[in-house]
């Protein structure tokens, strides 16, 4: 039986936060751990919307903190599911920071989180597939297979010799 298909927009989530003193480090910038907490929440909601299931965070790809987010900035996190496999879903998150008085907005972070849909016993359970609609969604969808293999190899859940998508990149 073919699996149900859903669009990326059906899982799209926007979360808006304001950086308060309790969110900052001693330089008055947003702490990385607080941002990762917000990213975990927004992406979990996206994965729940896609699967209509309880989800758990399975892995987080690398996150760089190249631009500081300052006290008082308004932080917007957008997230959606880029591709679903059996029980797992890759979620893409984009973060922007806005200095409201000046109207200046900067893109600060991008990341991929992987969630697994589980039943009441915590056992992985199948989720609908993704049907990309836009060019950006198609590109993310195609890249998701490569990223999945990379994270499974790094997590020692896949043998490097079985990662066919990576072989074509590294010409193995
Ligand atoms: C994630 C979890 C449900 C996987 O359970 P498991 O018994 O290892 O299940 P499986 O080996 O059958 O894998 C299930 C799916 O998880 C994916 N997965 C497992 N580990 C992964 C990892 N490190 N990165 C990406 N995907 C992973 C598998 O690829 C598989 O995906 P698929 O069904 O789409 O093919 C289980 O490890 C778990 O409950 N972990 C704790 C989750 C948690 O508490 N998160 C919050 C941490 S604070």
TrEMBL record:
E.C. designation(s): 3.1.2.20
UniProt keyword annotation of Iron-sulfur present: no
Segments crossing the lipid bilayer: none
This protein's UniProt keywords: Hydrolase
InterPro entries: Cytosol_ACT, HOTDOG_ACOT, HotDog_dom_sf, Thioestr_dom
SUPFAM superfamilies (UniProt xref): Thioesterase/thiol ester dehydrase-isomerase
Domain HotDog ACOT-type residue range list: 9-121
Residues of the signal peptide: none
Enzyme class: hydrolase
GO molecular function, one term: fatty acyl-CoA hydrolase activity
Pfam family name, one: 4HBT
PROSITE patterns reported for this sequence: HOTDOG_ACOT
Family: Belongs to the acyl coenzyme A hydrolase family.
Name by which UniProt lists this protein: Acyl-CoA thioesterase
Organism name: Marinoscillum luteum
